[in-house]
Design brief:
With 173 residues, this protein is mainly α. Helices cover 53% and strands 12% of the residues. The protein is globular, with a radius of gyration of 20 Å. The chain starts with a helix and ends with a helix.
């Protein structure tokens, strides 16, 4: 809230993407997009996060159209899935249940789990790490994959992250 108020004080126009009508953020923003994801029933629900990603993706496509860059053939196939099919997608995951159970059986008995990703995958990794902590109390962290690369300016941080990642990999084996 403080960051939003500071941005507005500096003359910024604030667009919020929220799930709850009448929330503090919605009241403070200049413009609001409601995701209508529904109430959060469980601690580990990700529907508000997922719908916000969908809205941001669609907003980016709209803005690209308004500014004519990049050209439509460059982004349409990858970023415009059939949104009408989204409500049926979770039902398809039950077919992959045995694969999910296989991975869960490999990792359920470990003390630490690390999510590693780049760009948007890093944000998704942070969300996954948070959800794992919330439901299992297993130590979990997310790292940007760039932090794991050896660089002089990040040598200490990257070395520490690599050490922790190696420890995790050893535990997984």
């Amino acid at each position: 809230m403080a960051a939003m108020r500071e941005a507005k004080a500096l003359g910024a126009r604030v667009l919020s993407i929220v799930n709850v009508v009448g929330s503090a953020i919605a009241r403070e923003a200049d413009d609001v997009i409601y995701t209508w994801a529904g109430p959060e029933i469980a601690v580990a629900t990700t529907k508000a996060y997922s719908t916000q990603l969908a809205v941001v993706s669609q907003l980016a496509i709209y803005m690209a159209d308004q500014h004519a860059a990049p050209s439509r053939p460059q982004y349409t196939p990858r970023s415009s899935p059939s949104w009408s099919a989204c409500p049926t997608k979770p039902h398809g995951y039950s077919r992959e249940q045995s694969e999910i159970q296989h991975f869960a059986s490999r990792f359920f008995n470990h003390n630490s789990i690390f999510f590693i990703g780049r760009n948007l995958d890093y944000a998704t990794g942070m969300e996954g790490s948070l959800k794992l902590k919330e439901i299992s109390y297993i130590h979990s962290e997310a790292y940007a994959s760039g932090e794991l690369e050896a660089r002089d300016d990040l040598a200490d941080r990257a070395g520490h992250a690599r050490h922790r990642a190696r420890h995790l990999c050893a535990a997984v084996r």
